Amino acid sequence: MPLIQTVQTALFSKTAAMKIDSAVVALLKLDPEQTTVSGAGGGGMSSASTSKITTTLPDGTKMNYFMKTGKGKSAETMFKGEHASLNAIHSVVPTLCPKSFGHGKFSDNPSTSFLVTDYLDLSGRMSSKSSSGMTLAQKLAKLHTTPAPIPSGYEKPQFGFPATTCCGDTPQDNTYTPSWADFYANRRLRFILSQSNKSNGPDKELTSLVEKTCTDVIPRLIGDDHLNNGKGVTPVVIHGDLWSGNASQGKLPGMTSPEDVVYDSSACYAHSEFELGIMKMFGGFGGGFLKEYHELVPKTEPVEEYEDRVRLYELYHHLNHYALFGGGYRSGAVGIMRGLVGKFGGRGEV
């Protein structure tokens, strides 16, 4: 259910080219006479158009960039969030994702928003069964063991993010919160329930189960005084939408051979295990991934509740997919909540 109106131009034929907008020229400090724009595959959401910018530098070398474009306020919000997301990840593990150079609106067509990043060359991904450099597990481990920065005006790292990010087409409430349990209950589960009620209509059963999950399960399972023997968890940056379609092998600028990379991020500062919810929901990362990852990032205590926590984190993505697409995602969410409420219900309130 795309919220961004796709930009349809001759840009996306293999033979056509488009004049580069002056706003992009200014952002990247390009020579428009030495720059071309052509179609590019990939780019994540079907609601955004993608293109490749190729420019020739004064010394004769060529430089490539990747650009997304879309129309409307939703595109502007999405690209602002993705810009912040990519750079939050890139600042910790530069080889994990493209760097974003900026976002804005076309000067010649202000209704069109754009995002410009490093060009990620995925052309060799099908021919390479193994990547060079650090593995995805190693890169995510580094990401998930680096504490979040302290936001301006705060005394310690917070759960949340400085920009609205979009998981799919859902703009997420990332308001900074000192408590992880509070953030997950209110900024994720109750928030996405309200989105679902808007798109699918009021649902008494779903509402009741989400409330029971927030008031009973969350304090018991991920309460700040429960995790890590009462020490809680430290916020770290997560990708936020890491299903297998947002991970691959490719070459970023400076790489001589393909490495494990991710893209189309929806970052926030969160409990590291939140990342694993959508990875479990859709699979595709191979049986050895979690073994290698958890050798570097130990499971949060209490370890015996790890599987239930991951199910709780998977729940958000079932609810988000139901809010966006309807259909069978509701039954997945209901099944998770019934299981967790039956096991952990009746013991607290958030």
Written description of the protein model:
Keywords: Kinase, Transferase. This is protein-ribulosamine 3-kinase. The chain is an alpha+beta fold and 350 residues long. The chain has 2 domains: 10-118, Phosphorylase Kinase, domain 1; 136-344, Aminoglycoside phosphotransferase (APH), C-terminal lobe (Aminoglycoside 3'-phosphotransferase, Chain: A, domain 2, Alpha-Beta Complex). It contains 9 helices and 11 strands. α4 (180-200) packs antiparallel against α5 (204-222) and α5 packs across α9 (329-344).
CATH topology description of the largest domain: Aminoglycoside 3'-phosphotransferase, Chain: A, domain 2
Low-confidence stretches at least 5 residues in length (pLDDT < 50)?
A: 1-16
Q: Tell me the structural class.
A: alpha+beta
Helix amount: 25-40%
State the distance separating the first and last CA atoms: 32 Å
Q: Helical element count?
A: 9
- List how many beta strands DSSP finds: 11
Write down the overall geometry.
Answer: globular
Query: How do the SSEs run, as a string of H and E?
Result: HEEEHEEHEEHHEEEEHHHH
* Spatial order of the strands forming the largest sheet: 1-2-3-5-4
> What would CATH call the homologous superfamily of the largest domain?
Aminoglycoside phosphotransferase (APH), C-terminal lobe
Whole-number radius of gyration? 21 Å
CATH architectural type of the largest domain: Alpha-Beta Complex
Count of the domains: 2
Mean pLDDT: 91
* Major sheet details: 5 strands, antiparallel
Estimate the strand proportion: 15-25%
CATH class value of the largest domain: Alpha Beta
Family: Belongs to the fructosamine kinase family.
Protein name: protein-ribulosamine 3-kinase
EC number: 2.7.1.172
Keywords: Kinase, Transferase
